[in-house]
Amino acid sequence: MRIDCLLAGVGGQGTVLASKIIAQTAIGKQIFARTSETIGMAQRGGCVVSHVRIGDQNCSPAIPQGMADLIIGFEPAEAVRNLGFLKPTGQLLVNTKPIIPVTASLGGIAYQAADIIEYLKNTGHRAVFVDGQKLCAAAGTSKVLNVIMLGVAIKEGLLPFSQEEVLQTISEHLPPKFMELNQKALEIGYNFQQYL
Amino acid sequence: MKTKLLMGNEAIALGAIRAGVNVVCGYPGTPSTEVLETIARERDNGIYVEWSVNEKVALEVAAGAAYSGARTLVTMKQVGLNVASDPLMSLAYIGVKGGMVVLVADDPGPISSQTEQDTRHFARYAHLPVFDPATPEETYTMIAEAFALSEKYSTPVLFRPTTQVCHACASVETDDERYQNKIEGFVKDPKWVIFPRLSYQNHIKIDANETKISQEFSESPYNQISGQGTLGIVGCGVSSTYVTEALSTINTPVKVLKLATPHPFPDKLALQFLQGLEEVLVIEELDPVVEENLLRLCGKLDLAIRIKGKLTKDMPVAGKYSYELVTTALCKFTGQELPQVRPVELPPLPVRPPVLCAGCPHRASFYSVKRAMKKAGQNAVFTGDIGCYTLGNAQPLDMVDTCLCMGAGITIAQGLQLAEPDRKQIAFIGDSTFFHTGISGIINAVYNETDITVIVLDNSTTAMTGHQPHPGTGKTMMGSISEKISIENVLKGCGVTFIAKANPLDLAKAVETVTAAVNHKGVSVVIFESPCIAIVKPNTIQEIKDNCISCKKCIREIGCPAMSVAEEKVAINPHLCYGCQLCGQICPVQAIGGVNK
After folding, report:
1. Rg of chain A on CA atoms, in Å
2. Is the ipTM value over 0.85, yes or no?
3. Please, what is the end-to-end C-alpha distance for chain B in angstroms?
4. In B, which residues are within 8 Å of A76 by CB distance?
5. CATH number among 3.40.1390.30, 3.50.50.60, 2.30.110.10, 3.40.50.970, domain B2-216
């Protein structure tokens, strides 16, 4: 198995943790995993991109342009920004709820949310859209968007893992006090169609 | 054996524990910070860990411990080595007894640094061996080699990962091995006292050791030759991973040298590699260190081999490398056509630069100083420093006119004041940076009768690098609570005659305090005290009320990321708001109020 998965979002959305859960689940299945990400100046409010490369040790830390099998966009504009990474047969999973940067309100390039979603619908790639805000509301907190997105990805066959395998990673590597909440979030993501 | 997903910095940390490290010192700096934090988290009773006041102090503390036979590790980012270079240059002559590894993380790009300096130069300059790992998994055992080499030759050893090794994660095979280092204790000997005569003799010894280490590096398992042909490619550090991946698209046979020990340069291995080659392309980020060494060898031995790289403009001199960049270079080098990349046309996208967090007290501090100067009709200069608050340069605050290096805000203000005595000079400095290198600037300004105002942004943590304690926080990395060092008392001790404390989130009071400070003749200091939002939880958040007139003054004046405009109405994102209430104090019609979270 060889999978390159890119996660794109905004600082604070939990993309980095989601990338670690994917890599750790691969390792749990005895598959080599490599990740890299932006940390530092982009810690809060800036663009965050995590690269997860599974199944081959002989690769560089970042996914090359046009080679990603999957992009998980935690935010629609960030999904679009990284579309150049997706390979022709690659697939998309996108949270449609935008995070409007203050620069857009200060007279910078306006955030045309409808246009961006429309663009994503017409890329020619298979794309799954979810309303992350609605799903988070069902979980009771916006902090579990990352686990919800993983639940959706598993259900849609975008990641080669079962719900149990991801849950095992969460129970082994994440704080026990959030276990119940994360389990609920994974369930909600997996059954996202019920919340549409 | 256990396979773990480890960040490069975590692998280095666990590798250092495995190698029996006893004392670990450092100063936080991206991308090096997690090494020391991981050791502090995973350590047992035999290991001492501290965040030192600055890199020079850290290196000296570690050197002292190494004089006694302790295995020591010092961690910092590349610009930190500039601060620590005084003790390092001399320590190269004096040497150590216990293994001492100086970890210096370089930042090609740069992603979050002032410079793209190359620590491999420092290794050459200081005559110290340096390791340049390619992957997180490689560092785990390589750090033990560095400790062993340090002890064998009684020299400090540099360990230089780059951002894509430090902050990348990988499956790492770990084991339960643990080297037990016996600390002999300090043995009195004239060799620990640096004198010109001793330095002369040690210079000769160092030179002889470099020749020996060069030969050892030629046998290192971390350096590898593979492939064959008349074309050669060298990849140093993380660049070798780009070479490996890019070669899968190259049809011409090539000979490859993966290099992990750039200094002392492994001449013997390099000659073995050069055998039978006509042309070589060197792939290395930052400066052409390996390239120059190959040119030296070719010149010395009269080899007719073309060495290509940065000096021949075949590779870019600045910025980080990538798979795409290396593939393009390899295609050109081997005469192969470039792979076609499908062009993707994107719609216009909003820019998302890093900004001060919603609720960040620095925003209020900057705004109050801006307001005070506007009221006074002063065209003041605002000198900045290194930390989160460098982001105060962004619009609409626009409150950072200069930024050079740690502690320079205060001293640059003094210089500006000398050249333009009638203009107000206001320096901003964070609490951790104040302790790092700010104090000497204060003493210099006071003693030389400078007329400047210093604003200390005290948020009770080292925020930018992920909230490390410093002397003002009263916490240590050993988990103990120590007496806080009071910034106010330090300033008093330095002879500052005007010191005022204020809460920046109380806008009217803050403006008043700044005005009084600026009017004071001499060095005046305002300490703005308000904790970083990452270490406190808000009780209330702000909400827009019905009487909002959509004038957008709040957005225009402070640029808080929790605020946005949708369909001409101002909105506050409840998930981002921290309830700092600055916006409410700006609203001309009192249309912003707090609600319980």
Report:
1. 16
2. yes
3. 48
4. none
5. 3.40.50.970
